[in-house]
């Protein structure tokens, strides 16, 4: 994402109509809009990059995590199928839950067979030894569309080995989602602005209205990300920028203890015991069911509420990352769209790369079909003219233009819903960081993530099983051991 203010002199784009005409576009018109018109925009090498792909392999098997906006998966499957038909590639797409991806890839690498192109989240770095380097693909796309967002690079590139082990085509913003009516009655109509307010005012809402805060403390992705956000807000982290473990070192240890004490207090005041058993969809479900006053999540929960509980959706508003004691605030990339190619799929790598190029060149469609959940890694990707599945936006020439216009005027807003609810997402780059902050998401950081060391640390204290000081030291000891293993392999 570009620096804030980069487009401050541009006129606001016109809001697209609140409709989705993609289903009405014939295959012929789709291909014309995606190929011939792409050539007119100077995108020919990208839109039709896969035409020679079948020379290296006539098949491509994709494994994707099931998107939290189900309509995106339907669009993507059709998008991939049409590309395959146009390029004489037999393409298939399988979808599984995000929690099952790491296990699935591990099994396929062990078996030496499986999918050719796999979409992972933040766990990709751990699999670097079993993946082919994608330096050529990343560098080629950077030459065409400029540098990716910093966070995208940090979850796909290893500065030690100088390898791109993945291609990050996008990510999801992780704002605070809060029920305005509940916080308004508690005297905070704009929701909490700090972690302290979340515990204090959120606790009051729980006592008075019997609606808890929806923060998980379990072995799942959102809990993993949230506890890290609290650590960062308390000015501490697992590692420093060069990759040295600091969680148990000096002032960082003291701050980590304070962060864990805060989570213990948050649980006592504002959470319920069910959060120890939550999965990746639990906070979504709690918010939609009216059983949470606040969650940290992408806007996917809100999109689901628009379809299932429009009354709840109209009451959901958003905020940037919460501030810690010193004012620090960070949110993690909520989800990461990280494509990897296993070494056993080397023969089909050219076909996989061609498909990725096609997706990047058409990322305006990915943003729209994800209902704005997908944030592109390459904000300067030009928008091809012609049939795109949405109304044209005046002056929109890149996906950056589109994102800003759509965040200002949400094309999926319900009738009677408040305007500008997503506007703050335009500045998400200012408060979003990556797994491994302030450094890279190296293999050790990814293993710590995949083994849930950090949420387990917080949960053990909240349950009363460990004292904060002991819990932090125990977690740090596990982290040191994991780092030592990967350092011996020369990967960090």
Provide structural commentary.
The protein is α/β, with parallel strands linked by helices and about 500 residues long. It folds into two domains: about 20-170 and about 335-425, Periplasmic binding protein-like II (D-Maltodextrin-Binding Protein, domain 2); about 175-330 and about 435-490, Periplasmic binding protein-like II (D-Maltodextrin-Binding Protein, domain 2, 3-Layer(aba) Sandwich). The protein is built from 19 helices and 13 strands. The protein has helices spanning about 25-40, 45, 70-85, 100-110, 135-145, 150-155, 180-185, 195-210, 220-235, 250-270, 280-290, 300-310, 310-315, 350-360, 365-370, 400-410, 445-450, 455-460, 470-490; strands spanning about 60-65, 90-95, 115-120, 155-160, 165, 165-170, 175-180, 295, 315-320, 330, 335-340, 375, 430-435. The protein has a six-stranded mixed β-sheet with strand order 2-1-3-11-6-12. Helix 11 (about 280-290) packs across helix 12. The longest helix is centred in the middle third of the chain and has 21 residues, at about 250-270. The model is unreliable at about 1-55 (pLDDT under 50).
Question: What is the structure about, briefly put?
Answer:
This protein is α/β, with parallel strands linked by helices. It has helices at residues 27-40, 44-47, 70-87, 101-111, 135-145, 150-154, 180-185, 195-209, 221-233, 250-270, 282-288, 300-308, 310-313, 349-361, 363-369, 399-408, 443-450, 453-462, 468-488, and strands at 59-65, 90-96, 117-120, 157-158, 163-164, 167-172, 176-179, 294-296, 316-319, 331-332, 335-340, 375-376, 432-433.
């Amino acid at each position: 994402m570009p620096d804030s203010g980069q487009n401050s002199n541009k006129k606001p784009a016109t809001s697209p109509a609140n409709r989705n005409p993609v289903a009405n576009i014939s295959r012929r018109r789709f291909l014309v809009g995606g190929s011939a018109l792409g050539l007119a925009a100077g995108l020919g090498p990208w839109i039709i990059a896969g035409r020679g792909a079948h020379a290296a392999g006539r098949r491509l098997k994709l494994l994707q995590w099931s998107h939290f906006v189900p309509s995106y998966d339907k669009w993507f499957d059709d998008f991939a199928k049409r590309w395959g038909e146009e390029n004489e590639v037999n393409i298939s797409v399988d979808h599984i839950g995000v929690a099952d991806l790491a296990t699935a890839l591990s099994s396929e690498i062990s078996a030496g067979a499986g999918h050719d192109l796999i979409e992972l989240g933040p766990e990709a770095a751990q699999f670097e030894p079993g993946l082919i380097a994608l330096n050529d693909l990343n560098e080629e796309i950077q030459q065409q569309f400029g540098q990716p967002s910093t966070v995208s690079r940090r979850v796909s590139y290893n500065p030690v080995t100088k390898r791109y082990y993945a291609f990050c085509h996008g990510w999801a913003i992780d704002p605070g989602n809060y029920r305005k009516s509940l916080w308004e009655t508690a005297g905070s109509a704009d929701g909490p602005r700090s972690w302290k307010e979340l515990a204090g005012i959120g606790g009051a809402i729980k006592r008075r209205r019997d609606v808890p805060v929806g923060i998980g403390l379990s072995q799942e992705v959102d809990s993993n990300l949230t506890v890290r956000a609290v650590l960062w807000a308390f000015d501490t982290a697992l590692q420093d920028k060069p990759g040295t473990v600091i969680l148990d070192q000096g002032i960082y240890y003291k701050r980590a203890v304070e962060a864990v004490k805060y989570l213990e207090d948050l649980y006592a005041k504002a959470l319920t015991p069910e959060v120890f058993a939550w999965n990746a969809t639990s906070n979504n479900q709690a918010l939609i069911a009216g059983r949470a006053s606040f969650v940290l999540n992408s806007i996917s929960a809100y999109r689901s509420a628009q379809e299932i509980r429009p009354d709840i959706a109209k009451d959901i508003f958003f905020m940037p990352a919460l501030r810690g004691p010193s004012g620090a605030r960070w949110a993690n990339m909520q989800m990461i769209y990280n494509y990897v190619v296993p070494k056993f799929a080397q023969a089909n790598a050219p076909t996989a790369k061609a498909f990725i190029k096609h997706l990047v060149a058409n990322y305006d469609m990915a943003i729209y079909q994800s209902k704005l959940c997908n944030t592109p890694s390459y904000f300067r990707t030009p928008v091809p003219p012609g049939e795109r599945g949405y109304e044209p936006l005046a002056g929109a020439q890149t996906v950056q233009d589109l994102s800003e216009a759509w965040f200002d005027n949400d094309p999926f807003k319900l009738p009677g819903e408040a305007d500008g609810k997503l506007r703050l997402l335009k500045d998400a780059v200012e408060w979003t960081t990556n797994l491994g902050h302030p450094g890279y998401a190296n293999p050790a950081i990814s293993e710590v993530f995949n083994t849930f060391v950090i949420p387990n640390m917080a949960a053990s204290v909240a349950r009363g099983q460990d004292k904060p000081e002991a819990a932090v030291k125990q977690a740090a000891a596990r982290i040191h051991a994991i780092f030592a293993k990967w350092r011996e392999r020369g990967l960090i």
